Amino acid sequence: MSEELVEREIAAEQAFVDRVYRQLEVSAKAAQDLAEEGHSRGRLGHEGGLVERDAMVFQAARRIAQLDAAHEGLVFGRLDMLPELDPQPRYVGRIGLRDDNRDSLLIDWRAPAAAVFYQATAAEPQRVVRRRVLRNDSDVVVGVEDELLDAEAQTDLPIIGEGALMAQLSRARDRSMHSIVATIQAEQDKAIRAPGRGVVSISGGPGTGKTVVALHRAAYLLYTDRRRYETGGVLVVGPSGVFMRYIERVLPSLGETAVALRSLGEVVDGVRATRHDEPAVADIKGSGAMAEVMRRTSRQQAPGSPSEFRIFWRDDTILLTRGQLGAIRRNLMSQGRRNRQLPRIIGTLLDAMWRQVRGERGRDRGREAFDDDMQSNQAFLDFAAAWWPPLDAAEVFGWLRDPEFLARVGDGVLGPEEQRLLAKSWAQSPDLSVQDIPLLDELRYALGDVPARTDDEASLADSGLLDGGVDMQELFTAADREFAPTGRAWAPPTHKIDDDPFAHVLVDEAQDLTPMQWRMVGRRGRSASWTIVGDLAQSSWPVPAESAAARAAAIEGKELHEFHLSTNYRNSAEIYAYAAAYAERVGLDIDLPTAVRSTGVEPVVRPGVAEGDLEAATREAVAAIAAEVGGTVGIVVPAARRSEVNAWLASWPEFAEDAAGARAAVDSAVTPSGEDRIVVLTGLDTKGLEFDGIVVVRPQEIEDESATGRATLYVVLTRATQLLTTLG
């Protein structure tokens, strides 16, 4: 293949790409004009003009955002079909564009016409002669990679390059996941284009592209049924904030922004947690038994609330005893969730009190007079407000910090040692952990939201129960309607309670979700379609059967479509062979994907590093890897050593110059995005991530951290794309 031929082909493709970008600017100008026209409609002075303005500006803003996101690598594919079928090449890109004559200029990768770009093979070319991938640097074509799919076709098309996929796999990593829209493989494409309804389950071993396939599926669903998925919203749930930052650019790069990305510590609206409990405590908080503990907690009398009420009216002393109030509370609880009973409190108490009126004068005055007198009596109003206040889930969660209260609600559900560990955890850390968030969510739903005031509930407002600055409508703004007649679930964070639920829920690293986390996520997708991504061999939850039952309950009644990915695109064959051998040696039941890329470089194993030599050995290993690879390097450590190793990194002048230690000081230690090239992570932090090189410090300690430490270490060993070193 001559260099002149390659340059000629690149120049021809550049001419077409330039034409597409010119059309992109025309489309962007049209969108700007639409926005300006919309604003002018708002100045017409009537309501119809305002409605037209909002609609036009919204559509224009969405189109502008889509066009802006598509700039990077806008055109990436070309199909040359059999000449008798279509003599003109078809170009595939991140979005669809038409020319001034309304003819198709660029096909959106999600369109049915583009499916053949991913599905055609040499065995089944589907009338495609040549498939070409354009490698771009922004709007400049820097190379082309061809595949001849129909060798028998009568054509003189040149074939250039060594394969787009291998070129993509060998590039350096940075701190963000990138789209694979130009190199989606056939088995991945089937999962991406699976039916929109029901549940799509994507399984496969490490490096098979499960996460990025699922994200491309979300983009595909938004394209195929935009009204449904933009209106309802798409929720993407991942294991950690580190992971969510890693994937956050994928969907915007595909032109999609109507997506809520939430780590497991951020699923509940308005609450955020990043701290993890130690494994023993996390296992207790994640267990399905905690649902019963939260249910009991939601039904307890508020600590410090009055246990009886006495008042004299006419000739009678009326007494509500502890036993009577307990019976009233149980009766109210049987009618629905606690906060939903607020409108009934006054009437129910008055019913119980009226039954004690025996005196002639009181009976002669009648029930209406009795009610009027009580509802104007400040002592009664103060009692009612204190006995059954509107409760916030965070406030009720705080009750569990009292060991005596915890023992009461945990009796028969949690053992003494489990109660002790929970009490110690909550006493030591006033802030919420990631494992606390599902418990808080459970309380929100058990308590229910506070009803809005309506005309027929005026007696509640007039009673004074809402006095004291309590705005009931502001409480539980994200509360669910799980038990409401509609059966609809919690709405996206940008919505109010009574709006539609999420239309699609995507759960990544699903094998790690605890039963309580499945309950939390399940509430967000009662009427949604789902994409669930995971690999059981990488699970960090010690009781798989319990988690599987909770997952089944979350998606109950939905049709299941299962897809399995079998090719490892991340690891070199040498690295994955080492990781797989470890997994087999420790007894993990692993899915063994086929690694398609070999580097000829075996992992470096240094088993006998003494404690006093560990920092020097780590520094040496990091320096050696950083000198060999152009992208990111991860230092993976036991959780107990993270601060220590971060301090080491801060003191190494070749990697960091300031006390924080996270910012690299030389060009060779900075990614193209300007973010830190070298990062210190725990084993759990590495879930879903990948690095050019990995240094594993004290792998045995990572294995010993929890009951599922072997699975965690297996995950760690499969994060590197090129180089792997273990120390310890």
**Using only CA atoms, what is the Rg?**
31 Å
Cα distance spanning the termini: 49 Å
Strand proportion, as a percent range, falls in 15-25%
Report helical residue fraction: 40-55%
What is the number of strand segments? 21
Strand order of the largest sheet: 3-4-2-1-5-6
Main beta sheet: strand number and arrangement? 6 strands, mixed
- Broad structural category: alpha/beta
DSSP summary: helix tally: 28
Mean pLDDT: 84
> Residue ranges: pLDDT <50 for 5 or more in a row?
454-500, 657-674
- Tell the overall outline: globular
How is this fold's topology laid out?
Layout: H1 3-41, H2 47-69, E1 75-81, E2 90-93, E3 97-98, E4 104-108, H3 115-119, E5 128-137, E6 140-148, H4 164-169, H5 186-192, E7 199-204, H6 210-224, H7 226-232, E8 234-238, H8 241-247, H9 250-253, E9 259-263, H10 279-286, H11 289-298, E10 309-313, E11 316-320, H12 322-333, H13 345-354, H14 360-365, H15 367-375, H16 378-387, H17 393-399, H18 403-410, H19 416-428, H20 437-447, H21 458-462, E12 504-507, H22 515-523, E13 529-534, H23 544-554, E14 560-565, E15 567-572, H24 573-585, E16 594-597, E17 604-606, H25 614-628, E18 633-637, H26 642-651, E19 678-682, E20 691-697, H27 699-704, H28 709-717, E21 720-727
Parallel strand pairs: 2-4, 7-13, 7-14, 8-9, 8-12, 12-13, 15-16, 17-21, 18-19, 18-20, 20-21
Antiparallel strand pairs: 1-2, 1-5, 3-4, 5-6, 10-11
